[in-house]
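Working notes for the structural subgroup meeting. M.R. asked for a predicted model of this chain before we commit to crystallization trials. I am recording the input and output together here so anyone reviewing the notebook later can reproduce the run.

Input as submitted:
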Amino acid sequence: MAKHHPIEALLRPPVELYPAAVGAIAALIALLAPWALMMTPAVAWVAASLLALFALHRARQGLRVLRYQRNLRRLPTYSVTADRIPVSRRKLFLGLGFQWTQKHTQRLRDTIRPEVQKYIQPGVLYRWARERETSWEAKPGLRHLARLLATRSRWNPLAPLPPVGGRPALHGVEPEEHQVWMDLGERVGHTLVLGTTRVGKTRLAEVLITQDVHRGDVVIVFDPKGDADLLRRMYAECKRAGRERDFYMFHLGHPDISARYNAVGSFSRITEVATRISNQLPSQGNSAAFREFAWRFTNIVARALVALGRRPDYHQIVRHITNIEPLLSDYFNHWLPTVAPDGWREEIARREESVNENKLPLALRGRSRRTVALVQYIKEHNLYDPVADGLRSAFEYDKSYFDKIVASLLPLLEKLTTGKTAELISPDYFDADDPRPIFDWMSVIRRKCVVYVGLDAMSDTTVAAAVGNSMFADLVSVAGRIYKSGTADGLPDTGSAPETPVISLHADEFNELIGDEFVPMLNKAGGAGFQVSAYTQTWSDVEARIGNRAKAGQVAGNFNTLVMLRVKEFETAKMMTDQLPTVEIFSLMQVSGTNDSADPGSAEHFSSRNEDRVSVTETPLLSPADIVTLPKGQAFALIEGGQLYKIRMPLPDPGRDAAMPDNLQQIAEEMRRDYVTGDRWWVTEPVPRPASGPAPGGDTTIQTADVIPGAPAGASVEDDA
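Returned structure, recorded in token form:
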């Protein structure tokens, strides 16, 4: 079985074990009975040594064949406890695996030949055990034996295969696997993870997030489903890394224990407020015009609120869009003293008394007399201000007409301002009795925090999408500020610019989050330290969400790293296979034939021949069918400039994790002890602990500066065969 042979024959009987056994027996005879071989003791020792080396060499070759065939049937279990996931400052750990080459394509094609199936498929005893599991399950005397046969344990030689499905041969074609690492510099090019439901996307996300937390990155995780296990894992890793005080949980499904966030209260340009709200409205066909009207009126309200020194939020937006008169009155009373001549208040009072409603335009009837007087006064005195003019134009619209042109906006705002969810996205900054903190992205980045965003999309998709897209838009705005001015933008000049932190953004089910805000996040935010890892099921979900195949291609082109788990859509699988080259594979053809002799005088009546011909054909390095049949927890990864790796993620160790909270309520209780609350914002000394005792992180201190996270925990990997 020389390495230079074109055909690598591993699916065959391990014939090397026969000469290995003969060599071992001969060596033993030479040692114990040299006289039987007519050797002197000195010669016998030399002969025994050579025979033993020969036996070891052949045994090693035979065992390699057996190990390879066993790997094709059943891979060794790969599980790692959370505290032993490797963490590096220069590399990102992906799992165990190997670089996929022509050799593995050749081996994989060899496994589909019918004559080798006995080396790949489980044996007769295995199939018998699986049949007995079912047939004995309900029989009183045999149910316990059936339960033993179904036990996955090392002592059970007939244990069932792990419930991962797929073709084990996809990873078994390379017994010599090793840890697969990706250079951290590649992450700025962003990572796309594709895989159907329940095949390991969340587990891979946990592995990546764990490393990001221990590395000290700013970690932001968007989870539309609101996965409680992912939330608990993130909090456990923050505790293990000494960063539990930096952890924020924003969860629309648990408003009582969630942190609060104003989705439209932070911006660098005032127009962002209207854009974040109106972007949630449909933009196809006739809806585009109504969307533009909604943007204009939202922008008018937002500009007026900011001019009055108020922070915009959804509550104020919906209040003033439905009734703009109080806002107009407040702004005019704020603006007129700076531009109107002396005596303007008395003149407006006289106008208010002389207003005749019957002579007013239809749109102004039923309005407050004072507001009508204010509008008439500025028009007659030619007083101009862009904010005041916008408020005046909105005020003079007919009420019924106004309601029609913002009809698509009001239902959205009603959803966002109804129930306890409104308290999360329209927080009251002056409520000192509310212990839930309020965060914004710039402070999160400056303090190097870890944020979990659960959007509870299964309960209300519209609200989840609106809040998620607003958060993305806010993040893009913050990225622009960091790109231009760094994280010290708006802070006092200390003489030295702080280092821009690494911001690891993980977006699970990102097809539910993606919008116009996501594209600039991918192609422009890398310079601000953002590195995006996006997870979704199929690429068609993204195309359907965007509604434009070309724009979906633009999004895909911004992901330099592609990790493909099992997918059920061939078009999605082709996203990877179409990027791979073709390779030459060898096939062995057996040829036999006979020829009759044409010479009647010859003693040779016929001739025969038997040949083995090696043919070469070109085939793709990987086909979509291979990706469709991947087992759970396994993936192909296209990393570092197109290098293809086959990897498998570590399974969670079933052992108890001391840092893992039992439920969300425990997380809430522990975080409440560390929350920075509004009622004691002036306190800088440690806050007294409640009577129940200290939290795992020690005494709480109100943090006013960046926190330096602890060093990552020690890590290693176990591979249990």
